[in-house]
Amino acid sequence: MSAAPGAPPPFPLSAVVGQDDLKLALLLHAVDPKLGGVLIRGEKGSGKSTAARALATLMPGPAGGSGAPAPFVELPIGATEDRVVGTLDLEGALLEGRSRLRPGLLAAADRGVLYVDEVNLLADHLVDVLIDAAAFGVNRIERDGLTAEHPCRFVLVGSMNPEEGELRPQLLDRFGLAVEVRAPRDPELRTEVVRRRLAYDADPGGFAGRYAADEDGLRRAIAEAAQILGGVVVPDEVLALTSRLCAELDAEGLRADLVLARGAAALAALDGRKEAAADDVARLAPLALAHRRRRGPLDAPGLSPEELEEALERAQAEPPGDPSAPTSSPEMAEDGVTGEGSGAGGAQQGPRPPAPGVTLALKTQRPSGVLGRRNRGPAQRGGLVAARPSSEGVTDLAVAATVQAAAARRAVQAATGAMAAAVERADLRQAVREARTANLVVLCVDASGSMGAATRMEAAKGAAVSLLLAYQRRDRVALVTFAGEEARVALRPTGSVEVARARLTDLPTGGRTPLGPGLRAALDVARSARHRDPDRRPVIVVVTDGRATSAGPPSAAADPIGSARAAAAEIAAAGIEALVVDAEDGDVRLGLARELAEAMGAHYTALPDLAPDTLARAVEAVVAAEPPP
């Protein structure tokens, strides 16, 4: 929440050393909150939360610049949906028998800043709530017998460390601007950062006073810019440059075009100008486009200055298009990108067609899913969707529904003069929760010296990163390799593209084929993950030709084939879903991988032309389908 009376003032934004992109992104949102929010990506200790907290002190408060300051609300990772959205006022329901809303954090953030540290770790159902509230500026509540709504127009500021996992693409695109921050490497700048921090810690009020004039200047600039923003013109040639630049850099959807146009207007207003210019677009392009680019699975994220300069040169060199050609207005673009249930740009995205050469022989035919999306299903943790009486005992109490049931019963008993207990067993309601399903894909890959080992490894590495990009932040991927006399976990379960890229760069191949130990290692990873997170569905994907020439270390069983069959039976007995990808090539085929799939009770597909995209598509066909009962 905002600083309590008597609390020390926040660290001034004008006192932050460097971080020009971050300060600009925050100031532009103070001028125009419709830009969509700021995502701050960077390492720990780089001043992310300090800058976010400072923004609220520069914004006009709910009373329009006088009275109470703008609220600063921090959303904790462990917050419940009731705490975020609002819930039934239990005291009023129990004492008065009335159902009324107790507002949550979204209401508290109205006309202020809502800050989410480690936003990439926020629970999925809360991410959905934030997306809707940030998009529409209204929080609608329909739960526990309540129907209410209230304004929640806030600047959304999220921070994250990419090594701890990625964001879902839907939320990533929702942030208008994204900024990469890191602690300065220049010793003199680092010294100045430490000097200012020590001075602030020793005397927060005195330190803030030394920057009061600078802070007042920023407040005046923001207020004046907000007043003239409505009259700032974005010329047609600047809009055309914006669209050509977005197309040159393969920005997904139309939100990038809209953010660049609005951001250019806000930047012009902040400079006291009545017309946006091409230089405004060039200044904001890295902040608006880097996180929206279409990237290959193994490409590093971001937008280098060289790439931007080349794209700008190409965009500026293109002649204007046919003036009679239809164009999308900002209003049309906004409608397209904020429409619920649509992909980027508002277009519905259907299932991908099967990849050439991919034929799945599944145990049962299941409906195909949509890439990057998940069905919702029952879960121990997740959003509360219903409450019901339970004759078998209540394991997850739906508090609001229980209170309402008790209040209704007490009202009836009071009317008859009967004594009424506060809560009776019949009042108890079981919470019914639902969450989007999430998977752990355990890739188990033959890295032995057999023909095609290098191809298998490259396909597995590319598929692992492709899956993380498609299902960012929700699914996890792990990689087990087996070669020589042992199996090794090359990649522990992770949702981070950066971590996967770093750890899968160089994987050795060669030696014999210990198929049995490889299957057991994959089973151990899947079992451990299922124990830690019962709501996450593990799927083992074995990439092999089915051959087994080693049973492990010399002290292990001497029968490689028997070892592999026993491990396959263990996977089947554990009830863990699996897919065997047959990578056997050549004219003579033994069909050993199909036999392995039968022993595992697994799905089976043959991919003689193994490649990252075909392997990823084969895995998607399984994980996007409904899990078996």
Query: Describe the biggest sheet?
Result: 7 strands, mixed
CA-to-CA gap between the ends?
45 Å
Give helix % range: 40-55%
Q: Give the beta-strand count.
A: 18
Strand content: 15-25%
Structure class: alpha/beta
Counting H and I runs of at least 4 residues, what is the number of helices?
22
Short description:
The protein is an alpha/beta fold and 629 residues long.
Report on this structure.
The protein is globular. It contains 22 helices and 18 strands. A hairpin with a 2-residue loop joins strand 6 and strand 7 (146-151). With 629 residues, the protein is of the alpha/beta class. Helix 1 (20-31) packs parallel to helix 2, helix 10 crosses helix 12 (255-270) and helix 20 packs parallel to helix 21 (592-600). The strands form 5 sheets. A 7-stranded mixed sheet has the order 10-18-17-16-13-14-15, with helices on both faces. A 5-stranded parallel sheet has the order 2-5-8-1-9. 41% of the residues lie in helices and 17% in strands.
